[in-house]
Design brief:
heterodimer, A: six-stranded antiparallel beta sheet, five-stranded parallel beta sheet, B: flat
């Protein structure tokens, strides 16, 4: 550990964003001070005990491919591993791990502590300090000690001026009893950063010993699937079950009878909550025709008997909560250990950031995670990694890393936040990725490892694995061009119910058939026996999707033409004749990097883009 | 590969020749499908910058035309370009354009040729200035409520189609992003839903095939006091005795309609009963009909007497139609002129003197956009093309829809939604996400 009062970078907050940001900076040889309100909340999973899921699993794989930490730590804390959407195409296969929360925190804390370039400090940051050039030059803590630095990454999560709400009870504190940060918001306001108030919530944690699991359906993980990190080739994961149960008419009646006591409905919570994360009272009131809602009981950790009740987040008073939890099959005698609560917190207007996640008007000040209006561990970690990398590039005066929408979910996430802004906590969804078929979790390494290598976060072991994979993909593609006469595949086709053509087919032709999978090709043809199944599956995806990938690639090409037209950052849009007023205002606020980004700003029309093009040419 | 675009490059309605331009990688191929020339087996082998004489297929008929190929990058846009020089006339050009769109070209957006030229580094400063003017005028036009607005009925149908697509899209998306939580079976009725969508699109396309003006022409109502010479004018224009002409006031009791074609534009002249207070029941019906005819016409042609002052009744009529494009025609100049009106046209229906001038003025008004007709043609072709594209995407989505994975069907559905968005102005990504959450109960 180093003990200087000057650091290259200071990271505020040690949640999922903060640890990625500080590890990225430290691994790129920067001296980092990581300040957190509590060392016991490093990488704390304040809500659900899992990492991954649809689109989020993709984000974790991308973080891993770039040399981030989340995938590795998630693999080391697994309670169960599933691949969602296995019945659908490869593009939407989504990895989700049930995680041991306590272990995840401990694993991550150890990684941070063992990183020589990181100095850990428990404390509350109260001020961001700027020098005379309006550049970041340090921070001040609540205890009035100053620390100098050249760049700051703020990853304050949901802790800024947070308060929790349970019925009429309201308390100024952060998640799960951790103390909140009360000082930093004012400093941000002073810096000209717009503050907004968002809301989210979490369900109760209940005592495993008071649950009747016989009334529920156990759910186990999937076998033979690869875990998050591309560094891991084995299938080892614990397989602790989750349990499925349902709400019923009685649950709904309790909620309806007490809805006037819900802070969400009686007006005492005014901040904006996420639509994709509705409380149970929201679900019952908005979807009155549904007679039941799914509830999953999930293990929190091997170190505790607490169980997470997915689907039952609420801010109703505790007497109502107890009644409604106990109305559910299997929870009749349940003991609630921590009640469900809603939490309100300060976040910033993400349109004030540029695509590197730096505040546009304050050189050196980066923001990542929930403070930017996103939600979710994976979204936070992805931003933390990118902010950390770009803080490093800022320090070294090097080209920043900006991933595009056609090569990564991370690119979609950041572009959405920065270009379109968000009016509710932003969750990643595959529906947001217009080039979804290219952005598969299985090929995140193909898409992003080179970037990680150039930045310096991808070490030799990862890079060699990647090169080996590229080689194999090329070889396999050649092998799969081999033509076979019908008699060679007749019995195989008969066995899987495919019609038999009279001409010969290549393996590639075969793969385009619905019932042909890469695994059963390997099993049925000697010449394929020694191929790597994981890589073969990936090659098969591109073959199966071929026609649709071509369509997507055509639109990607159109997009890239616009993305390649760069816009200088010193343009005063209010002076450009021909732009509509709304477009001038939005463009001045967002300051897009290129015409592609400009075209995605809401309120900027295609006609405005043409005006802009012409203007740029004239310049 | 950039998509190949096409548009009529000469102004609407004018001139002895009309030019249609194709630009993009596929230009030669598309041109070859519509243009045949004795000198070439295939237009794909055309030598650049050489004019070829041949026949071009304009839907149901052929026309003689010249075609020239400019090879990329030595063209206006910097892409492969083919230009057809045809005879003038909107109908012919529209038919050829439609045919090109059928063969795979996309209709060019306003300024798109210039935009491509810019993107390919072919731009000159004067052109840059020009395009700003054009975009400005487009922005002003788009503020005008009439622009882009479809007839109420068509608009409703488009919105309904959008809703149908959004509905299917949102349920498929929800099933991909919430595989564990979505209990509804979204794939169950998919093929039949897509089929219904396809049928709705087909019937809409049928009904929206031609824009009104191209199909029906400009409606010009001839109004005026009885016996001022309205029927004589019509006969003079048509060169035949179509209307019954007598010197008894009130002879024309019904509405007569005749069509002529000039400069490629159809003009429908509607001869109406003379407008005066009358007690004759039949004539009264005719008078009312005349008023409503004028009300609905694109242009009102008000006939006045060149040798007597405007009467109160006539002034009342003029005031009545002051918001419509109006042409004042002073008849009976052969009997003398005592009224001075610089905006008026002085004619003699009897001798035919200056009658052609009326037609020139009507065509001018149409071409200069004063009767908001050229916009109608463009938007309508755009709408038809957007609907056609939507249909193509829905057709793709229908193929093997039982077994195609949702994420693939969604590519066509989203593309279809974007196409309809070109008409309605809605955008896909947020609409879809809004619909997912309003329709389904999702989330932990």
């Amino acid at each position: 550990m180093i003990n200087n009062s000057f650091y290259d970078a200071i990271v505020v907050g040690a949640g999922h964003a903060g640890v990625e940001a500080s590890l990225a900076l430290a691994r790129l040889n920067k001296k980092v001070l990581l300040v957190t309100l509590s060392l016991d909340s490093i990488s704390f999973m304040a809500c659900n005990p899992n990492i991954g899921g649809t689109a989020k699993g993709h984000l974790v794989r991308e973080i891993d491919a770039l040399g981030g930490q989340m995938g590795i730590s998630a693999d080391n804390s697994l309670l169960q591993l599933r691949m969602l959407n296995l019945s659908k195409g490869a593009a939407v296969h989504s990895l989700r791990g049930q995680e041991d929360k306590t272990l995840y925190h401990l694993n991550m804390k150890k990684v941070i502590e063992e990183e020589p370039n990181i100095t850990l400090l428990q404390g509350e940051v109260s001020k961001i300090l700027l020098d005379n050039d309006n550049k970041v030059c340090g921070i001040q803590t609540g205890m009035c000690s100053n620390y100098g630095c050249n760049t700051v990454v703020i990853c304050s999560g949901v802790y800024l001026n947070a308060n929790i709400v349970i019925g009429e009870y309201r308390k100024d504190e952060g998640p799960s009893g951790f103390s909140r940060s009360s000082l930093l918001t004012d400093s941000l306001l002073d810096l000209g950063i717009n503050i907004r108030r968002f809301k989210t919530g979490t369900p109760a944690r209940v005592d495993k010993n008071t649950i009747d699991f016989s009334k529920m359906t156990p759910q186990y993980g999937d076998k033979n699937i690869y875990s998050f990190s591309f560094l891991n080739d084995s299938f080892e994961s614990a397989d602790i079950p989750c349990y499925l149960t349902y709400t019923n008419e009685k649950t709904h009646e309790i909620i309806r009878n007490n809805i006037h006591r819900s802070p969400l409905y009686n007006g005492s919570i005014k901040s904006v909550g996420p639509r994709y994360c509705p409380s149970i009272e929201d679900k019952v009131m908005r979807f009155a025709d549904k007679d039941r809602h799914q509830i999953f009981i999930e293990p929190e950790s091997n170190f505790t008997d607490e169980m997470y009740v997915q689907g039952m987040s609420s801010s109703l008073p505790i007497d109502v909560q107890l009644d409604m939890y106990r109305s559910i099959a299997g929870l009749e005698n349940v003991n609630i250990m921590r009640y469900a609560y809603a939490i309100e917190y300060d976040c910033i207007d993400s349109e004030q950031l540029d695509l590197t996640l730096m505040v546009k008007h304050i050189p050196g000040l980066f923001m990542a995670g929930q403070i930017n209006g996103s939600s979710g561990y994976e979204e936070a970690a992805a931003q933390g990694l990118i902010a950390g990398i770009n803080a490093n590039q800022y320090l070294d005066n090097k080209k920043p890393l900006i991933l595009s929408r056609d090569e990564s979910y991370i690119g979609v996430l950041i572009d959405d936040l920065v270009t379109k802004g968000t009016n509710e906590p932003y969750r990643m969804m595959t529906a947001r990725a217009e080039f979804r078929l290219n952005l598969r979790q299985e090929n995140a390494d193909i898409r992003l490892t080179e970037y990680g290598r150039q930045i310096g976060l991808v070490k030799d072991d990862r890079y060699n694995k990647y090169l080996d994979k590229i080689n194999k993909i090329n070889t396999y593609n050649q092998i799969l061009n081999t033509n076979l006469s019908p008699k060679k595949f007749t019995s195989y086709f008969e066995s899987i119910g495919e019609s038999i053509p009279c001409n010969s087919l290549s393996f590639k032709d075969m793969l385009k058939r619905a019932n042909v999978t890469s695994d059963n090709l390997i099993d049925n043809f000697e010449e394929l026996n020694n191929l790597d199944r994981r890589i073969m599956a990936e090659v098969a995806s591109t073959i199966k999707y071929e026609g649709y990938l071509n369509k997507q690639n055509a639109s990607i090409k159109e997009l890239q033409k616009l993305e390649n037209k760069l816009i200088p950052d010193n343009i005063d849009y209010s002076q450009i004749e021909g732009l509509r007023l709304e477009a001038r205002q939005k463009l001045n606020k967002i300051k897009p990097l290129n015409l592609g980004q400009a075209s995605r700003i809401s309120g900027v029309s295609p006609a405005d883009i043409t005006v802009l093009m012409v203007y740029l040419f004239k310049k | 590969m950039s998509k190949t675009i096409a548009a009529i490059a000469t102004p609407f309605g004018t001139g002895a020749i009309g030019v249609i331009r194709l630009s993009g990688d596929n230009s030669l191929n598309i041109a070859n499908q519509v243009f045949k020339c004795k000198k070439l087996d295939s237009f794909c082998n055309a030598v650049p910058n050489v004019m070829y004489f041949g026949k071009v297929c304009c839907g149901e008929f052929f026309d003689e035309c010249l075609a020239v190929y400019f090879k990329a990058p030595h063209s206006f846009t910097g892409e492969d370009v083919v230009e057809f020089q045809c005879h003038g006339g909107i109908r012919l050009l529209e038919e050829l354009l439609k045919n090109l769109l059928n063969k795979g070209a996309k209709i060019a957006d306003k300024g798109e040729f210039t935009k491509r030229a810019f993107l390919n580094g072919k731009y000159s400063l004067s052109e840059a200035e020009g395009i700003i003017d054009m975009i400005n005028s487009e922005n002003i036009a788009s503020l005008n409520a009439g622009y882009r607005q479809l007839s109420g009925n068509l608009n409703k149908k488009v919105l309904k189609l959008e809703e149908q697509i959004l509905d299917i899209t949102a349920s498929l998306e929800a099933s991909l992003d919430y595989p564990e939580e979505l209990e509804e079976e979204v794939r169950e009725n998919l093929p039949s839903k897509l089929f219904a969508l396809k049928n709705d699109l087909l019937s809409l396309l049928d009904s929206a095939k031609y824009s009104r003006i191209v199909k029906n022409g400009i409606n010009v109502a001839i109004i005026g006091m009885p016996n001022i010479g309205k029927s004589s004018l019509l006969n003079s224009i048509l060169g035949k005795d179509r209307a019954i002409v007598t010197d008894i006031a009130g002879t024309t009791r019904d509405v007569l309609e005749e069509r002529i074609e000039r400069k490629g534009i159809f003009i429908n002249f509607i001869d109406t009963a003379g407008i005066r207070n009358t007690t004759d029941t039949v004539e009264k019906i005719g008078v009312n009909k005349a008023k409503s005819c004028a009300e609905n016409a694109d242009i009102v042609l008000m006939m006045l007497n060149s040798n007597s002052n405007i009467t109160n009744e006539e002034q009342a009529l003029l005031d009545n139609f002051k918001d419509k494009p109006i042409i004042k025609v002073y008849n009976k100049m052969d009997l003398g002129v005592c009224v001075k009106d610089d905006d008026g046209i002085y004619i003699s229906a009897k001798t035919g003197e200056n009658v052609e001038q009326i037609i020139d003025v009507i065509c001018d008004k149409f071409i200069s956009g004063k009767i908001d007709a050229s916009g109608d043609i463009i938007t309508n072709i755009r709408h038809i093309e957007a609907l056609q594209n939507t249909l193509n995407f829905i057709n793709n989505a229908c193929l093997n829809s039982e077994i195609t994975p949702s994420e693939c069907i969604l590519i066509d559905l989203r593309a279809a939604y974007l196409e309809l968005g070109a008409i309605s102005g809605n955008t896909a990504s947020e609409d879809i996400i809004d619909t997912i959450f309003s329709k389904f109960c999702l989330g932990k």
